[in-house]
Specification:
single chain, alpha/beta, 13 helices, 42% helix
Length: 316
């Protein structure tokens, strides 16, 4: 595997939504700037969630206004409803908008009711309106949550997930993310579903978003890679998951650790386009922002030599 991948760094959004620790806007801006400096071409910057329900992102507009804007770097904001898209448009018109918007559906009715406070049918109506409002001014990312299993209903029919992905594509989104919201995926299920979705709609990139709840996150990333996926979400330190006030599932809910994923990919000869020293510096900044040691094993052990260009050159 010698072709490259793109990793979207999710610490500042999917990571921080799980945290009780308040991270001020200026610290978020510095962190996201460090992500861009390390070579991440996509980064989740914030969410336009209702500030009363997810207070971590009450500063969404302030963060977006303060971010550096290097060429080739796209910032993403999550939009759960049409009002969120209207806020995103206002920031864009003010000159400091996001480049990408995530639009969310859940593959099960129960998760939709708990997480979105609506029904699947009503959420799809919202999505249609959100795409209309966005009017081609953003890259749109359709996200299918609980794609590999629901914490309330258990089994999720892969056919429903594939239909959701196709429905997003028909609406004109640019990418579709398959989210393993509570870490129920296995490599065989991942490979099968990614192949199914990609075969049905080869025109739409499919993004892998895995949680490491049961320790299988990295293995699932490899399975997605083998199925042809070249776009991944992960979070420095492995933080994140569902919002802290929404309780379901057991154990750690966090994302795949970016440091560990990058180490494995680079060691396998897959180019991430990242500066490894700057990734480690950003990792330390994330730990400092939250005031504790996070979950990455590579943050403790360091990148393996196979991920270093000098090692690769010496063994070419």
């Amino acid at each position: 595997m010698t072709d490259g991948v793109t990793i979207c760094e999710c610490f500042a959004r999917d990571g921080l939504q799980h945290e009780e620790t308040h991270v001020p806007a200026d610290a978020k801006i510095a962190l996201i700037g460090a992500f861009a400096d390390a070579g991440f071409r996509r980064a989740e910057a914030t969410s336009y969630s209702h500030p009363g329900r997810v207070p971590a992102f009450a500063d969404a507009s302030e963060v977006l206004a303060g971010l550096p804007r290097p060429a080739g770097v796209s910032y993403k904001a999550t939009c759960p409803n049409p009002r969120a898209v209207e806020r995103a448009l206002a920031d864009l018109d003010a000159g400091h908008g996001a480049h990408e918007l995530s639009l969310l559906v859940s593959a099960s009715e129960s998760h939709t009711e708990r997480n979105m406070r609506t029904t699947r049918e009503q959420q799809w109506a919202r999505i249609t309106e959100m795409v209309r409002l966005a009017a081609g001014r953003f890259r749109l990312v359709g996200v299918v949550s609980v794609a590999f299993g629901c914490p309330f209903e258990g089994y999720v029919d892969p056919g429903v997930v594939a239909e959701d992905a196709a429905r997003f594509a028909d609406l004109g989104v640019d990418m579709v993310t398959l989210g393993d919201t509570t870490g129920l995926a296995t490599p065989s299920a991942v490979k099968s579903l990614f192949q199914r979705v990609s075969s049905a709609r080869p025109d739409i990139p499919v993004v892998a978003h895995f949680h490491n709840t049961r320790g299988s996150g990295i293995a699932n990333c490899v399975a997605a890679l083998e199925a042809g996926c070249r776009d991944f979400d992960s979070s420095l330190g492995g933080v994140g998951g569902h919002p802290a006030r929404i309780q379901y599932g057991e154990g750690m809910t966090g994302n795949v650790c970016t440091e560990d994923l990058v180490n494995l990919l680079e060691s396998e000869g897959v180019d991430t386009g990242l500066d490894l020293d700057k990734v480690m510096a950003a990792s330390r900044m994330c730990e400092e922002a939250l005031g504790r040691t996070l979950y990455s094993m590579v943050a403790r052990a360091g990148f393996g030599p196979a991920g270093r260009k000098e090692f690769q050159d010496a063994h070419a």
